[in-house]
Specification:
single chain; 207 residues; alpha/beta; 6 strands; 18% strand
Length: 207
């Protein structure tokens, strides 16, 4: 593909790889199909490989987490199948809040000390977060997107990024969703608004 990546101006976003979203013990990850797809695709190992390459290249890694902390989180939308699952799971404040199982990032892809961790309120990494400020402070113009799920956080963040003037790269084998059909459909849509590449192509581009 011969992809061109400016290492000084590109950051890697690792989004929503919290246990609640991807772990087999999580009702949400099971119900949505995320846990099965993460396992089937070997996603975590591949994201880790990209993170290691990005760090070795001296580039910025930003971890994005969903945080439904009291006083920080606005009313969640209640229409749509996935929104309804989130609302049901979050009754009683048992989901994606500090100190609760499932909030933590999967160990293999945890941020290193000193790396930015952005807390967001909704599907887009820009929603209710300081992501734009973090990117501007580091002189970033391009963001490479990884995480779960492709048709939620990856797509929503990509559309938001356009509004803020950022260019996007979607690393297609470093994101997944409910099933193969939904993944393919999401990637097809994203081709209009992002450059699509594999983990290996991205790693080669930053070597």
């Amino acid at each position: 593909m011969g992809m061109n990546v400016d290492k000084r101006k590109t950051a890697l976003l690792v989004m929503d790889l919290q246990r609640h979203m991807v772990d087999e013990q999580s009702p949400l990850a099971q119900h949505a199909g995320f846990a099965e797809m993460v396992k089937k695709t070997g996603l975590i190992k591949r994201v880790k490989k990209v993170m290691d390459a990005v760090r070795a290249a001296g580039m910025l890694v930003i971890t994005v987490k969903v945080d439904f902390s009291a006083g920080y989180f606005p009313r969640y939308p209640t229409r749509g199948e996935f929104c309804k699952i989130i609302v049901a799971e979050n009754e009683g404040g048992q989901v994606l809040r500090p100190g609760i199982w499932g909030y933590d990032i999967v160990d293999e892809v945890a941020p290193l000390g000193g790396e930015p961790v952005v807390l967001k309120r909704h599907m887009s990494a820009f929603a209710g977060s300081n992501l734009d400020e973090v990117l501007r402070a580091h002189g970033i113009t391009d963001i490479a997107l990884t995480g779960v799920a492709t048709n939620y956080v990856i797509t929503a963040t990509n559309w938001s990024a356009l509004n803020y003037g950022y260019s996007c790269i979607v690393i297609e084998d470093c994101c997944t969703t409910h099933n193969d059909e939904a993944q393919e459909a999401a990637i097809r849509t994203l081709r209009a608004i992002a450059d699509i590449c594999t983990a290996e192509e991205f790693i080669q581009a930053i070597r």
